[in-house]
Amino acid sequence: MREVTMNQERAILVTGVNGQVGFELMRTLQGLGRVVALDRKALDLSDLDRVRAVVREIKPAIIVNPAAYTAVDAAESDIDAAMRLNADVPRTLAQEAADSGAVLVHYSTDYVFDGTKSTPYAEDDRTNPQNVYGASKLAGERAIAESGCAYLVFRTSWVYGRRGKNFLLTMLRLGAERPELRVVADQIGAPTWSNTIATATAHVLAQGLASEDAKWWRERSGIYHLTAAGATSWHGFAQAIFDIAMGELAPKVLPISASEYPVPAKRPGNSRMSQEKLAERFGLCLPSWDDALRLCMGDMASGARQTDATLT
């Protein structure tokens, strides 16, 4: 293991840039260093030897890894692929970071918990994943901690954004097709905009880079919960989406229990996570989930209007 170093060029390697968080990180990290953003074509993360070679070639000061296997239900039958991307890749990146003195930033999930706690989860609460996806992400967390590198693991939840596959885009599509929707109301969490995650990450990294002190990274290495403030159910999330997007034209949203919507992978009933540690260590106050949702949908509407103006 080498001491944390920040070279003069200060390259920041970002994986998975076509994903929801990776796409936003390409924008929020500008100005902090030379951002090297790699998609699947540029870096096949299933090839661990190639991962090692690319890291050694770029020599990044910071590695930011939002890439993940996120198909929660598919993971139940695709265990090897989920473990490869969610555990083996973080382990490899962490080993390279430890050897080179780089800092690793990685993202995890509320699914490492079983969801039986009645209050928000803290970082040191007992983990007990209930599905393959959660187990694979927990394995990645542990591999990073065991590597000896300087690291920040941000656990987040219910991620949505303007691209990719997520609850927001699914609801907007279904809401335009159906007069009535049935949505789970007994699972609680914090919908978190991908831009919120990327922006908070940039704020944290800016603090570390400004310190120019390897000790800063070592003292703050660990797991942090990074979600929007507040909480709602999937039903409440859906209703808020339709209230903003469609108003009186919105479909009827009926609350149902999780047992009425069976899926291969069990989800936690309580996905709420405390942001106190994040606030104490970095002074960050993240927006409420509904305020962030309005900002995201406002951006989507603005983008659509600009596209329409360009086409006319």
TrEMBL record:
Residues 11-299 form the RmlD-like substrate binding domain. The keyword Oxidoreductase applies. Binds 1 Mg(2+) ion per monomer. Pfam families: RmlD_sub_bind (PF04321). Keywords: NADP, Oxidoreductase. It catalyses: dTDP-beta-L-rhamnose + NADP(+) = dTDP-4-dehydro-beta-L-rhamnose + NADPH + H(+). GO terms for cellular component: cytosol. GO terms for biological process: dTDP-rhamnose biosynthetic process. Pathway: Carbohydrate biosynthesis; dTDP-L-rhamnose biosynthesis. InterPro entries: dTDP_dehydrorham_reduct, NAD(P)-bd_dom_sf, RmlD-like-bd. Its cofactor is Mg(2+). Its EC number is 1.1.1.133. GO terms for molecular function: dTDP-4-dehydrorhamnose reductase activity. Belongs to the dTDP-4-dehydrorhamnose reductase family. Catalyzes the reduction of dTDP-6-deoxy-L-lyxo-4-hexulose to yield dTDP-L-rhamnose. This is dTDP-4-dehydrorhamnose reductase. The lineage of its organism: Bacteria, Pseudomonadati, Pseudomonadota, Betaproteobacteria, Burkholderiales. The gene is rfbD.
